[in-house]
Amino acid sequence: QVQLVESGGGLVQAGGSLRLSCAASGRTFTIYAMAWFRQAPGEEREFIAAASWSTGTTGVADSVKGRATISRDNAKNTVYLQMNSLKPEDTAVYYCAATTHPTSNLYWQARAKDFGSWGQGTQVTVSS
Fold first, then answer.
1. Across 31-52, average pLDDT
2. Where are the beta strands (DSSP E) in 9-121?
């Protein structure tokens, strides 16, 4: 099992930036890739970005392209999500997820159901 813990959420003004962290523990050697999703009230969980655990491959959803960057630090078993130029519509609970196998469209349109490990989520609120 892989355990994930997110941190870094909070309240930020529109136009500001935020960096979220996700620390993985447990059977991290089984991780194939990690991703960030977000979910606003009443909405489905939305893919944001993904990163391979072993290579440099990354991908970002079109909805946040140019504003979001995913990176990883394998030495720290941590994945980061940098979000810039934040908008009120970015307000959501942000989740970190891990998968142990390749999935369809992993780096640009990953599906939540393909990820077996999830963090508890961290709230991001962007005020206008």
1. 96
2. 10-13, 18-26, 33-39, 46-52, 58-60, 68-73, 78-83, 92-99, 117-118
